[in-house]
Amino acid sequence: MDLIKVAEEAFATGKEHPKFKSGDTVTVAYRIKEGNKERVQQYRGVVIKISGHGEKKRFTVRKMSDNIGVERIFPLESPFIDSITVNKVGKVRRAKLYYLRGLTGKKARIKEKRVAKQA
């Protein structure tokens, strides 16, 4: 058991990401390598599902790009994720929001949960 924990700690990125759930709007700062150059791309969209557990946990972010829905799956423990910021906390009743794929325009909006600001 000890050896497994040592191996997991060696591969863990050690980054603390904020807690988020499906329905939240997040911005993922993702490092992209193009040739020998590296840049950070901001990917902002709605989390439509979170799957897996532990080291294999991943989440799918959906955004609209020129009226075309684009979904991207990010591993939570990826070393290429610089940061994750939660922009809006959504008010949804289910864990997997696949129904958003069939909705367009104002119907595809998610109500925002009112969060009391702490002083």
Automatic annotation (TrEMBL):
- Stored Gene3D superfamilies: 2.30.30.790
Q: Which UniProt keywords apply?
A: Ribonucleoprotein, Ribosomal protein
UniProt keyword annotation of Ribonucleoprotein present? yes
Q: State the superkingdom.
A: Bacteria
| Record PANTHER family | LARGE RIBOSOMAL SUBUNIT PROTEIN BL19M, RIBOSOMAL PROTEIN L19
InterPro entries per UniProt: Ribosomal_bL19 (IPR001857), Ribosomal_bL19_CS (IPR018257), Ribosomal_bL19_sf (IPR038657), Translation_prot_SH3-like_sf (IPR008991)
Any GO MF annotation of the entry: structural constituent of ribosome
Q: What is this protein called?
A: Large ribosomal subunit protein bL19
Q: Name one Pfam family in it.
A: Ribosomal_L19
Task performed by this protein: This protein is located at the 30S-50S ribosomal subunit interface and may play a role in the structure and function of the aminoacyl-tRNA binding site.
The keyword Ribosomal protein is assigned to this record:
yes
Q: Gene Ontology terms, cellular component aspect?
A: cytosolic large ribosomal subunit
Organism, scientific name: Dysgonomonas gadei ATCC BAA-286
UniProt record similarity statement:
Belongs to the bacterial ribosomal protein bL19 family.
